[in-house]
C-alpha cells in the first residue's frame, strides 16, 4: 500500500468576521481554525475530537471544499482542492464524499432513494439511467438494504436505515475518502454499533479512508487509527487512540475523558463549548487552555506551546506534557 498521504492538510486557517459593534472600531474575527496540519494515509482513519466550538465541523467543511480557507492547503491525491477550477473540482468530488450528522435532515423527503443515492453520479459523464439504477442497486446491497428500497422515500425508513442510505450515497462514486461529521450521534445507542460496524466492514472491503468528526471518544477509539484533539481551532494532541486515552499528554484530552459520563447524562459540555467560542474571538497570549488548566504557571500564560513529539507518533501542544503523562489514567481516578 502507498505510504504517500491520501489527504494532506497543511497550516489550515479559517477566520470569520464578526458583526461590527462600532463604526469606530474594525470588526473582530473568530479564529475557527488556527494552523491545523494533518495527514491521512490510504485505507486509514483519522478521528477529530473536541467540544462544540472547537473547530471540528469547520475543518470538515473546509476539507470537503465546501468552504475556501483563509489560508493553508488541502491536498487530496496531490491536488490542492482550493486551486482547482470549478469544473475540475466537481469532477474531483468523485474521490471524496461526506456523510452528515443528521440522517433525517440530510435526505430530501421529496425524492426517492434511487434519486438521492444517484445524485453524486452527476459528476460522471456519459452514464445513462440504466447504469445509474444498476449502481444504486449495487451500493444499497453493500450497505445492507434491498433493490426494492430504491422506489421508497426517506420517511419509510428508520434512523439507522437512513444513515445507511446516506452512506450509500457517499459510496456511489467509489470514493477514496469519506468525511463523516458525527455520523452516529443522532442515532439510538443500539443502532450506533450497527452503523459503525458497517463503516468498518466497508473500509476493509474497499480500502476507504475516513475522517471521522466526533465528540464521542468511544466512537473514534473503535474506528480510527489516529486521533487529533482540537481546542479553539488548534490541534493540541495527536496520536494513536491507545496513547491518547491511556497516556494523555494534554490536560484538555484528560478533561474530555473525564467528562464522558457527565456529557451523556447532562448538558455541561454545551456550556463549555460556548465559552470556547467566545475566547476564539479574542487575541490570546500564551496557552489557549491556560484558564482551565490546574497545572498552568507563568510560562504557560506567556508562551504558546508548539505541537511537539512526546512519544513515538504521539504529539502534544503542552509545556507540561511530561507531567500530564505521569498522572494516573483518567479512568483510574477518583
TrEMBL record:
Recorded hits in PROSITE patterns, A to Z, give: ABC_TRANSPORTER_1 (PS00211), ABC_TRANSPORTER_2 (PS50893)
> GO molecular-function annotation terms?
ATP binding; ATP hydrolysis activity; transmembrane transporter activity
**Residue ranges of coiled coil:** none
Q: Which species is the source of this protein? A: Bradyrhizobium diazoefficiens (strain JCM 10833 / BCRC 13528 / IAM 13628 / NBRC 14792 / USDA 110)
Instruction: Name the family.
Output: Belongs to the ABC transporter superfamily.
**An annotated GO BP:** peptide transport
Q: Where in the cell is it found?
A: Cell inner membrane
CDD domains found in the cross-reference section = ABC_NikE_OppD_transporters (cd03257)
Q: What is its main location?
A: membrane
Report keywords, A-Z: ATP-binding, Nucleotide-binding, Transport
Its recorded name reads ABC transporter ATP-binding protein
